């Protein structure tokens, strides 16, 4: 057989067989329904697998919910915040809007996602031992000590009422095994919820490389408030954790502005760092109208939110009486 004939035999017989065998033995492509698209895990697929397998319960992400028509935004009041939004979570109507798609630092509003992920991946009665790292996390604190043992629910109160950064790290380590892995889970959840302009760098909000938008935070708050336990915790004005064999007595007080002063407000969370400014997410329900308000990079978050809520409820015909302004 000539060299040219041998070459043709190789091209038309051997190569096709090799290609078929390669297709049959190559790994099955990962479907987009199995793993979140657009986020590469530093732990590889094991992190996503652990995230999925440890999920206890969750509320179906309503990714079809959209921000609807603008009502009253042409006559809305001015606010000090760089960005803000007020939305009727049932109809999707936007009642106030200012730079709502601008990516900004969010400070402790991060803890809303920390709570969401924790409640969906660990039983609230589960025990968590406080590590040296968690106990040593400064700024706002719950007041926990290395070696103490708390239930997840107790730590959740410390996370969401006094905005404890120590509680945030204790929760992250107790739920996912490490704070780094937990942060990945936060970002997985963000993608699941369609928060396309959000990135979390830590579980507390101290890391100012975390960012989000007013729109994304309104969507996150809408989802979080579907969870009765989350809703109950953020609606608690104060609570006392009694002394036990595993931890000290701790009184905890809610820092959320307007919770006990503006009619219908039932949470959600404040935040502050020097870089982020004052931030606030508020959830209010009056006469069947459930509104979520977000203000970012404010110098007067309480005043801004009162103006936004007054305007929003006025737009839908609900009169709110208070002496806050």
From TrEMBL:
Gene3D superfamilies: DD-peptidase/beta-lactamase superfamily. One of its GO terms (biological process) is proteolysis. This is D-alanyl-D-alanine carboxypeptidase. The chain crosses the membrane at residues 7-24. The keyword Signal applies. SUPFAM superfamilies: beta-lactamase/transpeptidase-like. The active site is at residues 108, 111, 163. Belongs to the peptidase S11 family. It holds the Pfam family Peptidase_S11. Keywords: Carboxypeptidase, Cell shape, Cell wall biogenesis/degradation, Hydrolase, Membrane, Peptidoglycan synthesis, Protease, Signal, Transmembrane, Transmembrane helix. Residues 73-298 form the Peptidase S11 D-alanyl-D-alanine carboxypeptidase A N-terminal domain. Substrate binds at residue 269. GO terms for molecular function: serine-type D-Ala-D-Ala carboxypeptidase activity.
